[in-house]
Give the backbone structure.
Amino acid sequence: MAYTTIKKPSDYFNTKLYTGNGTTDTAQTGVGFQPDWTWIKARSIGYDNNLFDVVRGSTKRLIANATTAETTQTEMIKSFDSDGFTLGNDAGVNANTETFASWNWLADNTSGSANTDGSISSTVSANTTSGFSIVSYTGNGSTATVGHGLGATVDMVIVKDRTRAGENWVVYHKSLGKDKVIYMNLTNAADPATDFWGTSTPNSSVFGVKSGNTSNNWSGDNFIAYCFADVKGFSKFGSYIGNGNADGTFVYTGFKPAWVLTKASSRTGRWRVWDNKRSTFNVVDKRLDPSSSDAENTGSTEAIDILSNGFKIRTIEGQFNGSGETNIYMAFAEVPLVGSNDVTAKAR
């Protein structure tokens, strides 16, 4: 049996860096596929984390570091294209001479199809090979389930109320379980919340939502969910315990990471994103924060090493590597540990 079903991870996830020019109808190519979810963050200036997807439509913007409702922005992403996307002249994604990172995922290159696996019907654009789906649904205010279309147990779900301002981004992570929620727009530790993700653990067909008017199930509100399942050699969702040492914890993923997101879950701490395009050698110390509009932190002491089979923490910073503290992570591959020709991935 092959080590992984995905021989070239960049066919499903890829980071594209670019410099803005302030001009409308600017094509950004080189992603390698038509993206279905694109997350853009300014690097050289402070600006919001802007999220766009094919199910809601390319001009529909959500902000990862805010509780604002969805807005229509005709001069941010104008279209998803065969090898990237076309930008308008909005400074948040295309300010002249400023640098940006875009993180891009492939679903099924459609605006979704009907899914009736859950007690709430959903619209799903799913890629079962890469374990990623985009799910749109309307809340009913009752304990319910929502179909995610992955055909494999969902390990992480990121949900945002599109309709109602003031609602947090809520995250299910398998390391926390259905009775805890953590917020992508906040630095808070995970909150206890009985049955926030339903009365049973999310499975290969559905994830659950809480009864009552909550951040994942206000009655009559429209929601978007980004759902993920572990795929050997391509993606990994787990947790690690900090050791409070500069020679920090090693986290095994089974691949050489292209992108790593971490968050302290047992204490207050920022979300952090590292990738293989902004930092091309170890130590990887260029950090962006999904919960903040801050510009890129360059030369940060909050650093990791990217290794052939995982990543290693390289700081004593308590929000990231506090002794005995639990941190959750999600990671996507640059190269699987063992390629299709049985050649192992190489460290930097």
The chain has three domains: 11-105, 113-228, 235-336.
